[in-house]
Amino acid sequence: xxxxxxxxxxxxxxxxxxxxxxxxxxxxxxxxxxxxxxxxxxxxxxxxxxxxxxxxxxxxxxxxxxxxxxxxxxxxxxxxxxxxxxxxxxxxxxxxxxxxxxxxxxxxxxxxxxxxxxxxxxxxxxxxxxxxxxxxxxxxxxxxxxxxxxxxxxxxxxxxxxxxxxxxxxxxxxxxxxxxxxxxxxxxxxxxxxxxxxxxxxxxxxxxxxxxxxxxxxxxxxxxxxxxxxxxxxxxxxxxxxxxxxxxxxxxxxxxxxxxxxxxxxxxxxxxxxxxxxxxxxxxxxxxxxxxxxxxxxxxxxxxxxxxxxxxxxxxxxxxxxxxxxxxxxxxxxxxxxxxx
Length: 341
Description:
Layout: H1 2-15, H2 20-40, H3 42-45, H4 98-107, H5 112-124, E1 129-132, E2 135-140, H6 142-149, H7 163-185, H8 187-204, E3 232-236, H9 247-255, H10 270-273, H11 276-282, H12 296-302, E4 306-312, H13 316-323, E5 328-329, E6 333-337
Parallel strand pairs: 3-4
Antiparallel strand pairs: 1-2, 4-6, 5-6
Helix pairs in contact: 1-2, 4-7, 4-8, 5-7, 7-8
């Protein structure tokens, strides 16, 4: 979005040389603010750690919320909130807003460049393979293929985020439409347009309002872990229905221990997941959990480097059957001091 803003600003400055100075000044200010974040993400910006591969080709029930790599084509113009229920997904709704599109049509004459920006974002947003109403069409998206040829374009992990660029253009087009309504019908027309947009984006957008929230209360044993051996902590379960894979990062603010967790890759590390212990622990919350190891010694050997194991309810008893009674217990969780056993 920042790169697109720079390009669009320079294009505007070239059309009116008097704006060159303020444009360069605002660009330098924006660069100064963005530099620390760009520095932190430097490795990602050159491709390290990128999620490779195409978007999964599968039916997506939550197609209006778009948790996959690109937006669903129909979701761009389909209003009405969609409740994710017990599913824990990153929300990437692609809904543009019928009210905004209507205003854009009213005021879009003489603004071809903004329509082109919006069109480019919309065409690239569905990612590699087009989907319609949650079902893959099996049709490649040529716009996404063209984007890969642009320097840095292949680094886009979720093409739906390109709609942030399109939103800038859509805002300009919609504001032109609102201004035209005001000139013709007066202030009442623009107030009605604002009210319509608010209802559309707050009450009818797929994400709806208020947005889903998570309980910030940490697991009960989190505040007691200082009494156990120092070292890395593994929190279970790591995956399954109703399990948020990044929840341990929120609880980390309490115990401050290093975690055996990759924020960008839910689940256990590949080396651990390939062991019997890893298959057992990784599948605790699955509908048909794998059989656990026969003894605690093999678990401790496979978990070398993990000082403490913390388990949320209702999976404490399954782990206790193998490791024995926990060293710490709370109503909602328990912990085992593996380093001291």
